[in-house]
Amino acid sequence: MVSVFDSRVLVSGRERPILLVDDDADVRGVVQLVLRRDGLPTIEAGSGDEAIALATHVPPRAVILDLELPSCSGEEIAARLRTLYPGGLPIVVLSGRLDAPEIAARIGAVACLGKPFNVSDLLDAVHRAIATSPGRRGGPLRGSPPGPSPTAQVLTGTAGRRTGAA
């Protein structure tokens, strides 16, 4: 479970983050750096359980998902996320598995990238995912859990702040 003091949770108060799910901290770090330099807020999880816990409290805009995780498969995580967000949640698969394209197609991923990945390809895939995301501007997803929970407000640094259009 993510504590409220977890430094890996970096979210802007104005838009929903991209959820990075990979058990390799180095991969998460590189992807996070690339996305942050492109102005995209991120949250990250090193396991399936952590990903679901984060997605429950902080509705993601899209997910970058590794398929090989210690606690459960990427397919299982995708199914659980689709249950949480029946209105849709775009997924970009990022995996070194040879069968990743077939699995990505099965789970309805927007894109599938191999490891190692090209930064331009990653950004293109994430922007395609965002373009297909319900509530593209970072607003609520249809079928998403109601508004930010108090935990999410603490995690995102928006507790006690008024939010509105900028």
Structural commentary:
This protein is α/β, with parallel strands linked by helices. It has one domain: Rossmann fold (3-Layer(aba) Sandwich), CATH 3.40.50.2300. The protein has 6 helices and 5 strands. It has helices at 25-37, 48-57, 74-84, 100-107, 119-132, 150-156, and strands at residues 18-21, 42-45, 62-65, 91-95, 111-114. The chain has a 5-stranded parallel sheet with strand order 2-1-3-4-5, with helices on both faces. Helix 1 links the parallel strand 1 and strand 2 (42-45). Helix 2 (48-57) runs parallel beside helix 3. The model is unreliable at 1-12 and 137-166 (pLDDT under 50).
Largest sheet composition: 5 strands, parallel
CATH architecture: 3-Layer(aba) Sandwich
**Residue-averaged pLDDT:** 80
Low-confidence stretches: 1-12, 137-166
Helix content: 25-40%
CATH class: Alpha Beta
Number of helices: 6
**SSE string, helices as H and strands as E:** EHEHEHEHEHH
Terminal Cα span = 32 Å
| Overall radius of gyration | 15 Å
The structural class is alpha/beta
| Assembly of the depicted chains | single chain
Q: What is the domain total for the residues?
A: 1
CATH superfamily: Response regulator
**Per the principal axes of the C-alpha atoms, what is the gross shape?**
globular
In spatial order, strands of the major sheet run: 2-1-3-4-5
- Portion of residues in beta strands equals 5-15%
Q: What is the number of strand segments? A: 5
